[in-house]
Amino acid sequence: MTYTIKEVAQKTGLSIYTLRFYDKQGLLPFVMRNEAGYRTFTESDLSIIHTICCLKNTDMKISDIRQYVDYVMAGSATIGKRIKLLSAQRAKVLAKQQQLTENLKEIDYKLNIYQSPEAVETINQARQYVKEEKQASKM
Amino acid sequence: MTYTIKEVAQKTGLSIYTLRFYDKQGLLPFVMRNEAGYRTFTESDLSIIHTICCLKNTDMKISDIRQYVDYVMAGSATIGKRIKLLSAQRAKVLAKQQQLTENLKEIDYKLNIYQSPEAVETINQARQYVKEEKQASKM
DNA sequence: TCTTGCCCTAGAGTTATGTCGAGGGTTTAT
DNA sequence: ATAAACCCTCGACATAACTCTAGGGCAAGA
C-alpha cells in the first residue's frame, strides 16, 4: 500500500539523501512514519512530490517550494496564495524560456561562424583586431 | 578608449565582485592592466564577456566556460573543440526548453484547478482522499 | 595637499543544495 | 538466529558561485 524511501527514490530519480534532505527542509510534512520510524509514502505523496520536482525543475528555491507545500497542507483557504505563487513562477518560466531562446540564437550564431569554410580566416582577423585594440589602448 | 571595472559592471549587470571573481577563476585572461594594476577593458573584452554571460545564462558551469575561453585564447586551432563544446551546450539548452515547456503545462494545469469555480470543492475532495489513503495505509 | 572615491589583493564568510559517515535499530531470507 | 539489506538521525563535509572585509595604493577635484 505504501512505498519505502528507496522505492520513491527510484520512481522520482531523486537520491535517498535528497529525499531525506527535502524532508528536513520541510518539503515533505505529509509523509507518515511506521512504528519503526520508517517513512511510508502513499500514492498521493508521490503526486505532490512530483509537483515539488516540477517546481524544482523551474529553479524555484526550496524555501519557496516549502511555502507552496505549507499552503497545500493548510487547505482550501490558501487557494488565492497558491495562485499568486504559481502565477509568479509561471512568469519566471516564461521569462526564462525567452532568455533561453535568445541564448540559443547566440550559440547558433557562433556555431555558424565556426562551421563556415572561412572560419579560420574570420577568427584570425578578429584576433588581429583585438590585438590592435589592445595596442591602441596602451597609449 | 577603455572601461573601468565599475563601468563594465554597469554595462553587463554583473557586480564588481563577480567580475573580479570571474577573473580569479580564469574567465577573463584577456583583460589588460594599466601601470597602477587597474584592469582596463576594451570593447572586444566586452564582447567576449557578453558571450560568457550568454553561456552563464544557459547554466554552463564556470569551469566549462573557462574551457571555452581557453580555446578562444588559443586561436583557430581549437575551432573543432569550440564546436564540440557549443554543440553540447546547444543540446542542453534544447532539452531544458523542452523540460520548461512541460513544467509550464503542469503549472497551468494546477492554476486551472485553483482558478475554477469548483476549486474549493475539488481541493476538499482531494484532501479527503489523501486522508483516507493515509488511514488505509496504517493497516 | 587633503579628501573622496575608485582600484587592488588575499582570504574569510555566506547561501544554497546536496552528499556522506558514524552509530544504531529493523526486516527478511535462509 | 544470524547475516544482509534496509531504515533512521545527526552532524560534518562538499561544491558552486558569489559576497564582503581588511588593508593598502592611486586619482581627481576643492
- Kindly report the spatial arrangement of strands forming the biggest sheet of chain A: 1-2
Query: How many domain regions of chain A?
Result: 2
- The gross shape of chain A turns out to be elongated
Q: Assembly type of the shown chains?
A: homodimer
Quote the distance from N terminus to C terminus of chain A: 78 Å
Order of helices and strands of chain A: HHEEHHHH
Average pLDDT of chain A, rounded to a whole number, is: 97
| Derived structural class of chain A | mainly alpha
- Going by CATH, the architecture of the largest domain in chain A would be Orthogonal Bundle
Q: In this structure, how is the largest beta sheet of chain A organized?
A: 2 strands, antiparallel
Rg estimate of chain A, integer Å: 25 Å
Q: Number of DSSP helices of chain A? A: 6
**What is the level 1 CATH name of the largest domain in chain A?**
Mainly Alpha
Largest interface: A-B, 51 and 51 residues
Q: Please bin the fraction of helical residues of chain A.
A: over 70%
Q: Extract low-pLDDT stretches of chain A.
A: none
Portion of residues in beta strands of chain A equals under 5%
- How many strands appear in the DSSP assignment of chain A? 2
Give a written overview of the molecule:
- Two copies of one chain form a homodimer.
- With 139 residues, chain A is mainly alpha-helical.
- The first copy, chain A, folds into two domains: 1-74, Multidrug-efflux Transporter Regulator, Chain: A, Domain 2 (Orthogonal Bundle), CATH 1.10.1660; 93-139.
- In chain A, 73% of the residues lie in helices and 3% in strands.
- In chain A, strands 1-2 form a two-stranded antiparallel sheet.
- Chains A and B meet through helix 3, helix 5 and helix 6 of A and helix 3, helix 5 and helix 6 of B.
- Chain A binds a DNA duplex (30 and 30 nucleotides) through residues 4-6, 15-18, 20-21, 24-25, 33, 36-39, 61-63.
- Chains A, B: InterPro entries: DNA-bd_dom_put_sf (IPR009061), MerR-type_HTH_dom (IPR000551), MerR_fam (IPR047057).
- Chains A, B: GO terms for molecular function: DNA binding; DNA-binding transcription factor activity.
- Chains A, B: Residues 2-71 form the HTH merR-type domain.
- Chains A, B: This is Transcriptional regulator, MerR family.
